[in-house]
Amino acid sequence: MPSTEREPRTGLKGILSTVGGTPLVELERLMPGFTSRVFAKVERFNPGGSVKDRSALNMVTAKIRSGELVPGRSTVIESSSGNLAIGLAQICGYYGLRLICVVDSRTTRQNTAILRAYGAQVETVTEPDPATGQLLPARLHRVAELVATTPDAYWPDQYANPLNRQAHHTTMREIDQALNGKVDHLLLAAGTSGTLGGCAQYIREHRMNTTVHAVDALGSALFGPPADCTRLVPGHGASVVPRLLRPADADHVIHVGDLDCVVGCRTLIAREAILAGGSSGAVVAALTRLAPTVRPGSNVVIVLPDGGDRYLDTIYDDTWVQHHFGDVTHLWKNPPTTHLTSQLADIAK
Ligand code: PMP
After folding, report:
1. How far from the centroid of its chain's Cα atoms is residue 193's Cα?
2. pTM greater than 0.85
3. pLDDT tens digits, one per residue of 268-303
């Protein structure tokens, strides 16, 4: 199994030295009969539990190094209720930086509790923006107010910050090094497009022969006008086009729906015993669609952005799944077991 050494990054100490260096795990059971190898970059191994730890770390430490952020004096303010907020809360907690997270009424109690546990201040927006009826503009409006009225405030603005993209050079470098440069296909979930942009830039700069597949949500505005449907699964997709997005970073775009995410997640846990988040399910679903076109003998890498613990009330809850999609359990039940024989024989030795 190619795995990446967890080397502490220069200048980073304590828990921050464990951001990145996540394992690349070969998935031999996911796609029985597939004639290429599949590897998963398992980003839940980051200390805050997701790929966004890399972005949070880079967006904060670069500003500390440049002197713009001063621990004990500056305040970081961001509109995020999910993985980025948790990454920021951990990093700000470590450096003694004050953090205000602007969230809305849809934020889960668990995430709010995690943010508070790290010492972040949580501001909840409950009223939608009067002009659009949406909560996101209301959150951004509150961020702007706070930034204007708080001394030494820093708004990372993950949707526009080049440091978010840059953070993911490490993601791709680790994959490149683990597979000695042979990465034929890379499948990534796109939200802010930081992971996509950073990996694509590394691929170009290192002249790698890798086809980049961006996985987007049906109903997202990232790659063209959104299909008219609501999105239940958070993480990938975006309701507005991020300033960070360079569409040409993706050689190919695959749109997946909410049910695809559920089926992808449930298949991944049934066949590989990996409890992964919704966008990981999206990437697995995209791989299933791509597989017939992949040349035999290829190396295919999928990035799994977070773990499934934060999705236990939705994707992994049978009642929630039944409520939204009906009786669909046959779509992932009965994983084939024939492929297990050789592995069981290995264990028995
Ligand atoms: N999956 C999950 C679970 C995420 O939290 C995010 C970030 N919103 C993404 C995918 C998309 O990553 P990026 O923002 O780098 O495009």
Report:
1. 10
2. yes
3. 999 999 999 999 999 999 999 999 999 999 999 999
| Atom of ligand 1 at shortest range from CA of 198 | 15
Cβ(279) to ligand 1 under 6 A? yes
Cα(161) to centroid(ligand 1), Å: 14
Q: Which of 248, 239, 244, 235 is closest to 221 using CA atoms? A: 239
| CATH architecture assigned to 14-46+168-348 | 3-Layer(aba) Sandwich (3.40)
Domain boundaries along the sequence of the chain: 14-46+168-348, 52-161
Pocket test for ligand 1, best of 163, 220, 279 (most atoms within 8 A of CB): 279
Say if residue 194's pLDDT is above 90.
yes
Measuring CA to CA, how many Å separate 321 from each of 78, 189, 287? Answer: 31, 22, 22
Query: Going by C-beta distance under 8 Å and a sequence separation of 6 or more, which residues neighbour residue 348?
Result: none
Our answer on whether the CB atom of 50 is closer than 6 Å to any ligand 1 atom is yes
Ligand 1, residue 168: give the atom nearest the CA: 15
Q: Is the CB of 236 under 6 A from ligand 1?
A: yes
Architecture per CATH, domain 52-161, reads as: 3-Layer(aba) Sandwich (3.40)
